[in-house]
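Example 3.2
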Amino acid sequence: MLTLKLSPNSPTELAAHVVPEFQSFTLLVNSETADITVDDRARLEFQCPDIEGQPLYLEVTVVFCFEVWELKNWLAVTVLPSQQAMIHRLRYLCRHHTSEYGKLFHQLVNDFCHSNQR
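Structure, written as tokens:
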């Protein structure tokens, strides 16, 4: 099983990785491989900003992949519902930063669009 990594430095950065356009709790992560597709399962190694020490491992499903080459390594992954307690904990960490939700996703799309207009 492929292992993805996400190590935000703060709850604000974590909130920026949340993709609110999806119904389930979904995070945008950078993958080092392009050999992963929608519906693939992976393990997300997550270093939580409020916990020092060992990373947490979450089971996730890939729900979105960019098709354009420049963004190919970015994936949207959904934490499996069986890990509901962890989903609540992540939402709790982000509770004061919901205005940051989706910012990374929108920034990637906008940067790509502006770079191709030249």
